[in-house]
Write a structure and sequence with these properties.
- This protein is mainly α and 159 residues long.
- The protein has one domain.
- The protein contains seven helices and no strands.
- Helix 1 crosses helix 7.
- The chain starts with a helix and ends with a helix.
- The model has no long low-confidence stretch (mean pLDDT 93).
């Protein structure tokens, strides 16, 4: 069995209840976005100190997402493409909020993060099983891929 199949199967074991699944369809992307927003909020000027050759081309969120996409590439190149598009959407929305919102992006991101995790833990209380990431931290990245694999299946794409 491929590693991605094993990871998705194991993740799915603690996500059988329909209410918990529905909560995950909303909250996992929201948490992913909120983390992108928080990292996006780190001033890009700090890149000048640590990675001066990237300061004109990227921000911290772009760099972190590139690393995350390398992880996805190691477990499923097809899913990496979907996660790339979702990551790009998160970056675009974070940038838009940063440009036009009177409320700082970091504050919006903290709010989304907090509310989403409350719902996630409520979903797992209904499920009667602990969140997968408590067993293995990599499941924090498998959650979004788990949802993406359902999208791929529905569209008839191999993952």
């Amino acid at each position: 069995m491929r590693k991605i199949d094993e990871l998705l199967y194991e993740y799915g074991l603690s996500h059988q209840n329909e209410t918990n699944k529905t909560i995950h369809w909303i909250c996992v992307p929201a948490i992913f976005f909120s983390i992108v927003g928080l990292i996006f909020s780190i001033p890009s000027e700090t890149l000048e100190i640590y990675l001066p050759f990237l300061q004109n081309f990227a921000n911290w969120a772009t760099i972190v997402l590139a690393i995350v996409l390398v992880y996805y590439l190691t477990i499923s190149p097809p899913l990496t493409l979907g996660m790339f598009f979702f990551s790009a959407l998160c970056l675009a929305v974070a940038n838009l909020i940063d440009l036009i919102s009177p409320v700082p992006l970091w504050a919006i991101s903290i709010g989304i993060f907090t509310i989403s995790w409350i719902f996630q833990f409520y979903g797992h209380k209904i499920e009667g099983k602990k969140p997968s990431f408590l067993k293995d931290i990599q499941f924090l990245l498998i959650g979004p891929a788990w949802l993406m694999h359902f999208i791929y299946k529905r569209m008839g794409f191999a993952y």
